[in-house]
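Risk register update: the risk of archive-format incompatibility is retired. Evidence:
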Amino acid sequence: RRGGAAPALAAPHWAPDGSALVFEGVGLSATGQASVTAEWVAADGSGRRVIATSGRYPSFSPDGKSVVYTKALPTGDSLMMQPLDGGEGREVVPDSAFLLITYPRFSPDGQSIAFTAVANAPATDRRGYQDRSGRQVRPGRQPRQTAQVSRNRS
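Archived output:
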């Protein structure tokens, strides 16, 4: 890139048929602000395009028709699914559920999405709480990460 540092490319994931990649582009926007995008590019390097701004950890569905990614928001991360045909994306897990969501991956049949996350527990609650599976967690022993599986309703 001329006139500035090139963006860092991270978290690549191949399309199931090997025809394309999705990845994170991390760098500076035209205004000098930190920027992260979920992007798509053909395997030969052509057709690079942004799938989502503030998108991280993109990965293809098993049929290669959509991408799941995390969207970084001030209130936490949401889990998003975006069809690659240009259709409307949708929220799978809201930003209020977790502080951080990382590395979402579809199951081989495309019916579920697994990811790791940091719980969004109120700091003032010292009585303990239930995790998303309904398991009671002891006071003062909040889990740092938990695995979550969500049904794909596409």
